Amino acid sequence: LLAATLGWRFIDGDLLHPPANKEKMRAGVPLTEQDRAPWLAALHEVIARAVDRRESMVIACSALTARYRDALRGECRGVRFVYLKVVQGVAVERSAARRGHFAGPALVPTQFTILEEPADALTVDGALPSEEIVTEVRDEFGI
Where is 106: in which H helix or E strand? Predict the structure, then answer.
């Protein structure tokens, strides 16, 4: 909704997972650091190309740790993060409601186990209605 409101390109980071990662998650197996490395590199490449073109975009992904966020940002300036903070139960419910997605609700607890809440991100209550989230992000970032 944020991307659509701003007229920016939207990227669902999950779509950049290699097939082996998707199969692992479909089977309920959490990804390892080695599994995530090519995914993070692919996302960073998308970000770097957008920065080179001076293109604004919104990417949705689970940047769970400071190291992941550092890998996504790399040397790119102007990359900003929004942390949609929710309790684990809400994340499980939302994951269960996604039809046809390869990452099911069984994986949510493993994500909360490694989650490092970001100090370098705008933190927004992810349980708010989408329109309120968009308004808060736009107000905070001045966009």
Answer: none
C-alpha closest to that of 3 among 98, 130, 103 = 130
- For the record, the structure tokens of 7 come out as 């007229």
17: its two tokens = 């997972």
pTM score, whole prediction: 0.88
111 neighbors 64 (Cβ within 8 angstroms) = yes
Alpha carbons 91 and 10: distance in angstroms, whole number: 21
Q: Where are the alpha helices (DSSP H) in the chain?
A: 2-6, 19-26, 33-52, 66-73, 88-97, 108-114, 130-141
CA dihedral sign of residues 129, 59, 107, 102: positive
Residue reference for tokens 């300036």 = 77
53: its two tokens: 């073109």
pLDDT at position 104, please? 63
**40 vs 108, higher pLDDT:** 40
Q: What is the gyration radius of the CA atoms in the chain, in angstroms?
A: 15
| Digit-coded pLDDT (tens) for 50-87 | 999 999 999 999 999 999 999 999 999 899 999 999 99
Alpha carbons 46 and 10: distance in angstroms, whole number: 11
